[in-house]
Every structure is written in C-alpha cells, then in structure tokens.
Design goal:
The complex is a heterodimer of chains A (about 260) and B (about 120). Chain A has about 260 residues and is mainly β. Helices cover about 5% and strands about 35% of the residues of chain A. In chain A, the strands form four sheets. In chain A, strands 10, 11, 12, 13 and 14 form a five-stranded antiparallel sheet that branches. A four-stranded antiparallel sheet of chain A has the order 2-3-4-5, with no helix packed on it. Chain B has one domain. The chains are: A mainly beta (about 260), B mainly beta (about 120). Chains A and B meet through strand 1, strand 2, strand 3, strand 15 and strand 16 of A and strand 1, strand 2, strand 9, strand 10 and strand 11 of B.
Chain lengths: ~260, ~120
C-alpha cells in the first residue's frame, strides 16, 4: 500500500523535486546572486549571473511552483563577461500581464570591471525572449564613456514592479562627485520609456555608504519606498525615504533604528 | 556591506524593513515590523547578515537572513526556521499560488525551496 502511494506521488511530482526539498538551479551554469519573483498565476522567475563558460544575466522560469525550471535564457547580454557578487546581482519582477523585467548594473560593452550603467530588459512573452536592454541612469549617455565615469559604477541597485508594469529602480550613483560621493538615485520605467532620474537622497555631509546596495519596494499605486545605508558622523545607520507622488520626489529620509548603528564601514 | 531590505503592502499602508547593524558590537539582523515593533532576527549568540523581507497578501511579514553559514527565516507568526544549512544572500518572495519561496547562493550554484 505504501509502495503504491509513493509511486502515485512520483507520477505527480517531477523526478528529484519533492515539495520541500531545495531545487538546484541551472547547475551547469554555476549561477550566482539569484533573485526571485512570482507572478500572479504562480509562475516563478529566477534571475542570476551565470552561463556555461560565458557569463551573462540569465533567467529561468518554473510553471510548477518552483519544482522544475525550463532552460535558461539570456535576459541581458554582457558579452559573456557579466560581473557581480556581494549583492551586485540582477533583480527580477513581473507584472499582472506576465511581462517579465530583469535589471542589472553591468558594463554592456564588455571587458570593463564590475558596474557601469543600470540596464533594464523586458520580456513580453513570459521570459522566453527579451528585447534590447534600455539604459536607466541618464548620466554618461555615450557608451564609449570610460567605466570610471559611469555614474552607477559601484554596481549596486534594486528594482520592483507594480502590477500594472511600472518598473521602479534605485541605485548608488556618484554623478555629483567630487563634491559629493555616492548618493541614492531613482528612476521609473514605463513600457521602456525611462523617466527622469531623481536624486532621492543626497547626504549633506558627503555620501551614503559607498558599498551598500539600497533596497526598494513599491505599492500597487506606484509609490516607491527606498531603504539605504547612510554615512553620518562615522556611523552607517539605515534610513528610509518614501514617495507619495509616484516617484516624482521623495520625502525627507529618516533613520529606521534608534541610536547608533555601530557600523564603521 | 549588507544591504537593507524593504517591503510594502499592496495598499501602501504597511512597510517592513530588515537590516544588519552592530549596535551591540556584533553583526546582528533586525526586522522593523509594520506595527513599529523591532525584532532581533536569529539567535542572540550568533551573528547574522544579509536580511531580506517581503509582505504577503494578508500583510504578514516574511524575513530571511544568513546565520551560522546557512539561511534562516522568520514567518509572520514569529516562527524561526533553518532553511538551509549552507548558503548566503537569501531572498524571499510570496504569492497566493505558491506561498513563500526562498532562493539563495551556495558555492558553485543557486538553490530554491518552498517555505514552510
């Protein structure tokens, strides 16, 4: 009886994928920095840096709740030289119509150190194929600008998507150097149309934490909230700033924790 | 250094934030719940890092983090679970169809699992 039940279960679940057992993603591609989104229909999307030899920003899709994944596709091509690590990986989001969005900070023209510009690629067919990535940071528009002059060269960003398909991104940006160091920049992208970059937070002292990825979330009305690590008087406390006008501007940032964070940097 | 993580409910009324700080001298992860209550994530005698957070449709807060070389999670009920004995940079997402799913990086790869 027990044997019969287990055989029946085996017919329902794919081989090697029991419900609560971890599933290894694209093992031959040695993926790093996975990021995760789930569609309204339960489809699971996982973006990462990896590949068989050539490493790009890739996506795999699961139609069975994460038990099995289809073959990977390149979401953002970086000439096989994608860089990442220490929270510098790609982000993925999906809207209610199943459009899939993958973002990453990468030197698209190849051969440069990590970081560069913020890129966003969109799939209109559920992650099967992606259109050309659009550049989100509006500083240093020419692709031949040296990587050292790209405003997002630290390579740290976060992304979130509304159910309607508005894509919200925040990243470390140093466009005000040398007077200021890293600041928090933000932009919204709607159907590949990149909105004006907004400086969501500029530290009056000098800069935010220069090596700390910001976090970002957005509600269904399209109002983003950004969490970031600041740099004040030798400490690195975490701050929040919100927008109530769909990202046109941000309210004064406030600390999340009470007292000093005790983080020296 | 560790990124903070933020989540917002669909209606925009609830915000949860998770982060690492060293107020006590050690690296410890904290969660600020939408209620305003601050919770230490993980064991007091261990260090934590790289927390990530999401809010579900019932406005429950799910948090994951690194601790003792593995990935750990806190459910909306406050239950703490070891999700993986080895791993780093865990991320959590939730949907009505799937419940909570967690992905993380391991040496030479990435893994995903359901939670609980």
């Amino acid at each position: 009886m027990m044997r019969t039940s287990l055989l029946a279960l085996g017919c329902l679940l794919p081989l090697g994928a029991l419900a609560d057992e971890p599933v290894r993603i694209a093992p031959s591609e040695r993926p790093i920095q996975p990021n995760l989104a789930i569609g309204a229909d339960g489809t699971v999307y996982l973006a990462y840096i990896g590949g068989d030899g050539a490493r790009d920003v890739r996506l795999v899709v699961s139609k069975d709740g994460g038990q099995t994944f289809g073959p990977s596709v390149v979401a953002i091509a970086v000439g096989g030289k994608a860089q990442g690590g220490r929270q510098r990986g790609p982000r993925v989001g999906v809207d209610d119509e199943g459009r899939v969005y993958v973002s990453a900070v990468q030197p698209i023209e190849q051969g440069e150190p990590r970081g560069g510009d913020v890129w966003l690629a969109t799939s209109a067919d559920g992650g099967a194929t992606f259109g050309p990535a659009v550049k989100v940071n509006d500083r240093a528009n020419a692709l031949d600008t040296p990587q050292s002059q790209r405003s997002a060269k630290e390579g740290m960003h976060w992304m979130a998507v509304t159910p309607q398909g508005e894509v919200h991104l925040a990243w470390l940006d140093d466009r005000l150097a040398p007077e200021k160091g890293q600041l928090i920049a933000y932009a919204k992208v709607d159907r590949d149309e990149v909105g004006k970059n907004v400086l969501a937070y500029v530290n009056p002292q000098k800069q935010v934490c220069p090596c700390c990825t910001p976090g970002l979330a957005v509600d269904r009305k399209g109002n983003p909230v950004i969490a970031f690590r600041n740099e004040l008087d030798g400490d690195h406390p975490v701050f929040l700033t919100r927008s109530t006008n769909k990202g046109k501007s941000f309210k004064a940032a406030r600390p999340v924790q009470r007292g000093r964070a005790g983080v020296k940097g | 250094m560790d990124a903070p993580s933020v989540a917002v409910s669909h209606d925009g009324k609830k915000v949860a934030t998770a982060w690492m700080d060293q107020r006590t001298g050690e690296r410890a992860a904290y969660l600020l719940l939408p209620s305003g209550q601050e919770v230490r994530l993980g064991a007091a005698n261990a260090s934590q890092s790289h927390p990530n957070v999401t809010i579900d449709a019932e406005q429950g807060t799910w948090a994951v983090w690194e601790e003792r070389g593995g990935a750990w999670g806190r459910s909306p009920s406050g239950e703490v679970t070891q999700l993986a004995s080895a791993g780093q940079f865990p991320v959590v997402a939730w949907s009505e169809k799937t419940g909570a799913l967690v992905a993380w990086e391991v040496e030479g790869g990435a893994l995903l699992r359901r939670w609980p």
